[in-house]
Amino acid sequence: MDRPQTNLAELTAAELEAAVAALGAPAFHGRQILTWMYARGVTRFADMTDLPAALRARLADCCTIATPALDSRQTSSDGTTKFLLRLADGRQIEAVYIPDTPAQTFCISTQVGCAMACAFCLTGKMGLVRHLTAGEIAGQVRVLAHETGLAAATFNIVLMGMGEPLHNYDATMKALGILADSRGLGLHPKRVTLSTVGLLPAIEKLATEPLMPNLAISLHATTDEARSALVPINKRYDLTALLDACRRFPVSRRARITFEYVMLAGVNDSRDDARRLVRLLHGIRGKVNLLPLNEAPGIPFRRPDEARVDAFARVLAEHGVRVSVRKSRGRDIRAACGQLIVEGGRKSPGQRLADQLHSSRA
Ligand code: SF4
Question: Peptide bond preceding 102: is omega within 30 degrees of 0, i.e. cis?
Answer without folding.
Answer: yes
